[in-house]
Write a structure and sequence with these properties.
There is one protein chain. The chain has helices spanning 43-50, 73-78, 96-103, 112-122, 124-128, 139-151, 169-184, 196-201, 220-225, 227-233, and strands at residues 3-14, 17-28, 32-37, 58-63, 66-67, 81-84, 157-161, 189-192, 205-210, 213-219. With 236 residues, it is of the alpha/beta class. It has a single domain (29-53, 72-233), classed as Rossmann fold (3-Layer(aba) Sandwich), CATH 3.40.50.300. A six-stranded mixed beta sheet has the order 6-7-8-3-9-10, sandwiched between helices. Strands 2-1-4-5 form a four-stranded antiparallel beta sheet, with helices on one face. Helix 3 packs parallel to helix 6 (139-151). The longest helix has 16 residues, at 169-184. The relative contact order is 0.18.
Length: 236
């Protein structure tokens, strides 16, 4: 498997506060890789730095072997590196379908109609509500919409930040089933998730972040079996 996304010794600071301190990780084709850790561990900042939304103080991000240092965020998106941010951010005053169409705004190919139907197959509830204003959807439906909108941009790599946060268990199950389906369709996924049980069940490899550093990495099975992870994140 070839490495698609590589983070090398990434350091990010907010003023005098070091949020990420030398993080290294990799994502290869055919993988779901998860980052777990407590609040404030640096997970979201790592994703934002990968996307160029916050400038790294040191280190580098390589996407398909090329440094992204001089590439602005909007160009990374057009190259297929796509983030679904935490917080289910949708265009509240637009309909479900209009939100999805916004995901394809930079595309120039003729495949958007087919991809819209793929999103509706993945999330049938969105098809039922395609004419409904996004701001009136439930939290779970908005999360489905945020992921669906990202898929409309034809991602080559999908970054997901806390997709299950604040959702009911039955909706969490649906979201993770969708992530598995996205992965089976050939899109590697880098997943930030506080629901460590679900994240480790649905991923191949895992990194544990503690106060801005990678404290543990390995297969998801190895990480889940670690006594410290069991106690801190799995409630065992």
């Amino acid at each position: 498997m070839s490495t698609i996304l590589e983070v090398r010794d990434l350091t990010v600071s907010y003023g005098a506060i070091g949020a990420v301190k030398g993080v290294s990780l990799a994502l290869s084709e055919g993988e779901i890789v998860t980052l777990i850790g407590a609040n404030g561990a640096g997970k979201t900042t790592t994703l934002r730095a990968i996307m160029g939304l916050v400038p790294p103080a040191a280190g580098e991000v390589r996407y398909f072997g090329e440094s992204t240092r001089a590439v602005p965020t909007h160009k990374l998106v057009r190259q297929g590196l796509v983030l679904v941010p935490e917080g289910r951010i949708v265009f509240a005053n637009l309909t479900v379908q209009e939100n999805l169409e916004m995901g394809a705004y930079a595309r120039r190919d003729r495949g958007t109609a087919a991809d819209l139907e793929k999103v509706f197959t993945l999330f049938p509830r969105l098809k039922e509500r395609r004419k409904q204003t996004a701001g009136t959807l439930s939290g779970g439906e908005q999360q489905m919409l945020a992921i669906g909108r990202a898929l409309m941009s034809k991602p080559r790599v999908l970054l997901l930040d806390e997709p299950s946060l604040g959702l009911a268990p039955i909706v969490v199950h649906a979201i993770f089933e969708a992530i598995e389906e996205i992965h089976r369709a050939g899109v590697p996924v880098l997943l930030v998730e506080q629901n460590a049980n679900a994240a480790l069940r649905h991923s191949k490899r895992a990194y544990v972040l503690e106060t801005g550093r990678v404290s543990l990495e390995g297969t998801s099975e190895e990480v889940a079996a670690n006594p410290k992870v069991k106690e801190a994140y799995l409630g065992e």
